[in-house]
Amino acid sequence: MNETDKQTPFYSMLHSNASRLQHLADSMPQVVWIADHAGVIRYRNKNGAELFGESTIGAPENLIHPDDLRSSERLWDECVVSGEVFEREHRIRTVSGDYRWFLTRSVPVRGANGEIECWYGTTTDIQHLKDAENEFIEQRERIWQSQKMEAIGRLAGGVAHDFNNLLMIILGECGELVSRSDLDEPTQASIHAIQDAGQRASALTKQLLAFSRRESSLPVTIDLNQSIRDARNLLKRMVGDQTKLEVQLHPAAILVRIDPTQFEQILFNLVANANDAMPSGGTICIRTETVLAEPTPGLQLEPQCLGYACVSIRDHGCGFPQEFAEKMFEPFYTTKQVGQGIGLGLAVVHGIVEQHGGRAHATACEDGAIMQVYLPLASPSLIEQVVPGNNRC
Hints:
By secondary structure, the protein is an alpha+beta fold.
């Protein structure tokens, strides 16, 4: 085209239309691009240059996530050969270096002879849709988990309630027989064995009832530090001589409203769980502190003007993969070998803590695990003493 042609009205119209189309493409939020008949990108609009950089023209495969690259290339090659519309969700690296989800769609443009001359395409950022989808999936999983816990709780509670009624009869009859003086020693020993087994079974039903929240709760205001001091000797006897028990208590009294018996159950279950994780012995650390209701990964604390009391049980045992942390408090879930536990101890802890408005949390460490219980503080006098804790022993 010579200079004379460029001055004609037709050329001016073409130039004006091309300018309008360029401005239109640059004003669109999507990445607009054109590829040649072989699928090599030759043009991107302004948004494409800002998102992916000018230097990537003609080499989109350098930007696609490695996990998505092969399938995207295979589909693109098939569409180039067949002339079908290309549509694909995949992750693409932006100029910031981050991968984001995009929807890429392209249609072939055919010439008068029916052959593909080029491809017109758009690439749309759908990261917000993927985030919303993931959030929906997580919420659905939480609802499903809650419904599962409720169903198991009802089943366990019903069985435990009926079984406990039978145990009361057995233990009552054993009590009557023990008081008799006309029975020989072997018979007395057998009765005591039945009584001991019945009491252990009764303790198990109490755990099931606590898990299902059908056991009556009588919350009062207690000092967690004093409760731990009172239980310390029993805890030492429970863990045995191979295990050292360290206690690090907050300098001030920590007051919460909870059933004292149920708090002891929380304490004994967590310490027993820590002790089981160290079959060759080791150190268990019990720590108390006051913490603020701050956002913590994997922990949803309700805003409390008084903060929370935190009881941490730290062991140096075999630990567990962090991805299993959310399952640790599920009923009948256990990492122990067959015959070493039925997976109710932590579920009972979770049930009691939730019943009192708190949260239970498990954290995997390089050399063990930390089990934490958060309970709402009950004393206005602690407001000035509430400080973020480091959860270390």
